[in-house]
Specification:
alpha+beta; 2 domains; six-stranded antiparallel beta sheet; 4 helices; 10 strands; 26% strand
Length: 154
């Protein structure tokens, strides 16, 4: 079966991402499940998505990367972490981490918002939690490992 690129706005992308049951379920799997389409086991788990500007429908391909402590994560990257068996998702949009309707500059507040623990003891540094999937890549990178590698190069 051939894969196709579809243009979706940011709200649809967020809804698909938040509907994931687990980290192994990709966007195509989510849509198949929600649309009651039988899973196709012969298709690799991958789909290309583009983030669109909801105000005018144009595709937003360019934007600022999120940067902190010498680490740069490209615009459009997906972010995720798991805590107590629950998976949380975010994405990078024009230099910010977007969690729901919130835009955060730093990893720990973004993780707190995602997990719904604002004002409570979170007990962990956001660098230890988040993984990033860069646009057009399938692998997930641990941001804490990227930071440690960056430190060792100095």
């Amino acid at each position: 079966m051939t894969r196709k690129t579809i243009k979706i706005d940011l709200d649809v992308f967020k809804a698909i991402t938040s509907a994931r049951i687990n980290l192994d379920e990709d966007e195509n799997d989510v849509l198949r499940r929600l649309l009651n389409i039988k899973p196709n086991e012969n298709v690799p788990a991958h789909i290309v998505t583009e983030i669109s500007d909801p105000s005018n429908g144009s595709v937003v391909k360019d934007g600022l990367p999120w940067t902190d402590k010498g680490i740069s994560v490209p615009h459009g990257s997906k972010l995720k972490f798991s805590q107590n068996g629950v998976e949380y998702f975010a994405y990078v949009d024009n230099g910010m981490i977007v969690v729901g309707n919130s835009r955060e500059k730093h990893l720990t507040p973004a993780a707190q918002k995602a997990a719904g623990v604002l004002g409570k003891s979170f007990g962990d540094n956001g660098w230890r939690k988040w993984l990033a999937q860069f646009p057009n890549e399938e692998q997930w990178r641990h941001l804490g490992d990227m930071r440690a590698t960056n430190r060792s190069k100095k």
